[in-house]
Amino acid sequence: MRRFAGTLRKGWQTGICVWNMNIPNHVAIILDGNGRWAKAKGMPRTYGHTKGCDNLEKICYVARDVGIKYLTVYAFSTENWKRSPDEVNALLRLFRRYLKKCIKSSEENQMRVKVIGDTTAFEPDLQESIRRLEDFSKDYDRLYFQIALNYGSRDEMTRAVGRLARDMKDGRIEGPVTEEMIGSYLDTAGVPDPDLLIRTSGEQRLSNFLLWQLAYTEFYFTPVAWPDFHKKELLEAIRQYNDRDRRYGGVKE
Ligand code: IPE
Ligand code: IPE
Ligand code: MG
């Protein structure tokens, strides 16, 4: 069990004492509610996405400070292409900007960045930005940050099974098929499963996120919209995670 490694003052600033908390190794977040947050302020949905993006940058620093080792965020799903072309284009523009800025924050956070999802659907320049960021940050090891872009869990599993079947047919691997083998074909290969899943903005569903990897993850749902989800809210989620009893199907005496 890993304990919080920061200073006592950091906990006091938020009103939550994190001094003796068990920090989840891997936190996954469904970043939801940008659109409704903006609408409530009389602003266009894209304003919410811009603020959501700013918040993502901040939460990486918080995750690093708190001692989270893996952070995975759901930023664009395989289903999000159904939105209006205006909104999709605004999101793609934001990702372009964000991925470039992320070079600097990856260095500051000593954070390795990996994009999961089917990135082949993106324009070549966006794919190049992803490659550059992943390559630039590949040796950092303080925080492992996965961004899910054009990600859908069923799509990920379909791609994985396709490659696995091909490799088996061509004799590159041999049966029997195991859980570990399937895991190694997923986009998240080599990354431990999330301990804590957070979804902001009130919805209580997975929306096609990490269906395989969340098999034994603790879920935390909050009505707070993503642009308002700051350090205090993250620490509250971790505090509640500390009250959970993870039994993995067993019995604790
Ligand atoms: C999350 O916020 C960001 C993306 C899915 C890209 P939403 O855009 O889903 O915001 P709401 O849920 O409509 O408020
Ligand atoms: C899930 O949010 C996807 C992301 C946060 C990227 P959505 O807003 O797209 O999900 P639904 O439509 O409410 O299920
Ligand atoms: Mg939403």
Describe what this molecule looks like in 3D:
- With 253 residues, the chain is an alpha/beta fold.
- Helix content is 43%, strand content 14%.
- A 6-stranded parallel β-sheet has the order 3-4-2-1-5-6, sandwiched between helices.
- Helix 2 (34-40) crosses helix 3 (45-66) and helix 3 (45-66) packs parallel to helix 4 (85-109).
- The chain is globular, with a radius of gyration of 19 Å.
- One 3-methylbut-3-enyl trihydrogen diphosphate binds at residues 30-32, 74-77, 80, 203, 205, 207.
- One 3-methylbut-3-enyl trihydrogen diphosphate binds next to helix 2.
Largest sheet descriptor: 6 strands, parallel
Listing every helix as H and every strand as E from the N terminus to the C terminus, the arrangement reads HEHHEHEHEHHEEH
The molecules bound to the chains, other than polymers, are:
3-methylbut-3-enyl trihydrogen diphosphate, magnesium ion
Percent helix: 40-55%
As residue ranges, the low-confidence spans are 5-11
Overall strand count: 6
Report Rg.
19 Å
**Helices and strands: which structural class?**
alpha/beta
Arithmetic mean pLDDT: 94
Shape: globular
- End-to-end Cα distance, whole Å, is 19 Å
The amount of beta strand, in percent, is: 5-15%
Strand arrangement across the biggest beta sheet: 3-4-2-1-5-6
Number of helices: 8
Question: Which key features would you list for this structure?
Answer:
253 residues, alpha/beta, six-stranded parallel β-sheet, 43% helix, binds 3-methylbut-3-enyl trihydrogen diphosphate, binds magnesium ion
